[in-house]
Amino acid sequence: MSHLFPHIAADTGYDRRRPVALHAPARQPRIAIIGGSLTGPTLALLLIQAGFDAVTVYEAAPAAATLGGGLISLEHSSLDVLDRLGIDQDEFVKFRFETITQITGNDAAGSGVTRRVYPGRFTTWPLLHDALTRRLPAGVVQHGQKVTGLAETRGMPVLHFADGASAPADLVAFADGRASVGRRLLDPHRQLHYAGYVGHRGQTSHLPTELSQFLRLEPCPGVQFNIAPIPGGCDWTFYLNASAERYTDLFGASPHRRVFALPHHVGPAARHEVDTYAALHLPADQADVVHASHLRMAVPMLDIDPPTQMVWPIGAGHAVLLGDALAPVRPHTARGANNGIEQAAGLAAVLRQHRAYRADLPAALTGWQRRHLPAAVTAVRLGPTIGHRLGLGTRHCEVTTRSLAAAAG
Ligand SMILES: Cc1cc2nc3c(=O)[nH]c(=O)nc-3n(C[C@H](O)[C@H](O)[C@H](O)COP(=O)(O)OP(=O)(O)OC[C@H]3O[C@@H](n4cnc5c(N)ncnc54)[C@H](O)[C@@H]3O)c2cc1C
């Protein structure tokens, strides 16, 4: 089955099917999901599938906005969640490879080559986002709705929006990403820390010879380059050290303010710097790919204090954090989207138990937190360990700065 909600796609709005509702309450709980990227739409689909029909996704970006993103690897646990939503894997996995080839150092004899099989598959943000959002019934996602506040009013959570509007909810699920307003409101002491390096990204239709699977190059400390085929070309990420000041010079705002540098933030100086590093550190065909890439983005690596809580009571209602809103993790861990999807599936499961069998809601949410918090904390802690092993991060900034100066001089 490729589509779970064929009758909805035809016309009618929400899925009216119910789960086995032994003790369904008189009124459907109003569930507000903040963020319409990956975690939010996954949660919305799972809840609708479970019979909740008062689900709204509030997304800050306007409907017409082109949101970007590149290659994402999904583990089998996440793939299975998508399977259970009836999303055919062929729709978002366009290359069937599972192998990651890693080349460490510049050893011409090839002794630094290792291959491992990734326990999952590779997709891209646009493919996955499209597969999820096109299944959401009309009207579920409300674009251009930027949440700015959450208050308890008459004993219930009420969301406030940038345009002055407000909306009550029984449960508010913040899936609003690494700069989450939900995290700022609910868990204000957890800060983001710039880790001292940047993931420069690019896409091009120029394919290096014989690139048919994921290739990772680690030519020297302080440099990692990942490249893989995507529909129409290839996608690469080039990790390089950069001080916060350098990031600000290159992308026009500090790493904390500009948590994603979008294509229009990447000017000639940033392109030139990345091209120079590519020529310095990468084999000629990979450096050519970088040079030929018109579409460029960048992501500052940001760490966060590990989470200790995912659920907050707000009067008689609740608010939760999940996905990057709970804990953005370094991309090397390949756990960000996976965490969000697994947490969404766990949350939908406990809400269904509450609705269908009157499971005690605070206890059910606490159980969800107990199951998912450890994986989020582990991924938050793993990022700096990997970065350190690669010579990437604050303490290593000087190494890259010197290598660039040497190349220039
Ligand atoms: C280079 C790179 C490689 C990666 N590779 C992998 C990988 O291989 N595997 C993996 O699992 N993960 C990977 N990730 C991480 C993954 O992309 C993220 O974890 C994932 O996108 C998080 O999804 P999300 O929906 O939780 O948050 P986001 O994708 O950040 O989406 C948040 C959404 O909330 C909206 N929003 C924000 N604020 C508000 C507001 N106030 N009101 C309303 N809406 C708001 C935003 O517009 C956005 O649409 C990678 C990330 C990067 C940068």
UniProtKB/TrEMBL annotation:
It comes from the Bacteria. Keywords: Monooxygenase, Oxidoreductase. SUPFAM superfamilies: FAD/NAD(P)-binding domain. InterPro entries: FAD-dep_Monooxygenase_BioMet, FAD/NAD-bd_sf. GO terms for molecular function: monooxygenase activity. This is 2-polyprenyl-6-methoxyphenol hydroxylase. It comes from Paractinoplanes rishiriensis.
